């Protein structure tokens, strides 16, 4: 898609609004959770600043819609921080894998290799620089933190699917509607995989360990076609950051309606 075509496209905002009630990934004790967004007022047209209003914020790197950088996970700890991700990896074509029916039946559904190969069989090989987005309908829960977290049950990837994506030369990253790219139900699919280092968090382990990126808490994926849209992923370039809260826009060409 050329720049003139992009300018003539319909722009779809895929970002979850970020506020103090936006949930962050729950982690059990004794592990430490990241911070949700909070504001500390500095001035508000008062004696501390009569002509202006502003606040300090506390914000976890992994709050709301955000990009996971390789150094977020042990497999990519020596890899890129979020400020080091090349811009050309943050702009590219979008492929949308629709798993809404599967997730309606099973909220903890894990994307399989068969799903991914089936998508390529129907739509053609994933193009270079593609962000693959998994549409699940999960964003309909986004304004209700309890339903969104769903007692820690949300969609994710099988171990084999994570390895498939990590090995695919044309995939830049994976985008999901849930709070993380991995569902907590992910794990070994065979007895001989139980010692796999990526068995817990396979998407994190294999994608981030392969210089690919994760993008979470997306919305409006139902407005995108399976192919043909482009995306701009714009995380805060936090120096040394393991992630960056992001604004994400898709450009849908004329006639490229969502499915």
Automatic annotation (TrEMBL):
Record-linked InterPro entries: KFase/CYL, KFase_sf
Any matching Pfam family: Cyclase
Residue runs in coiled coils: none
Protein name listed in UniProt: Cyclase
Natural source organism: Microbacterium arabinogalactanolyticum
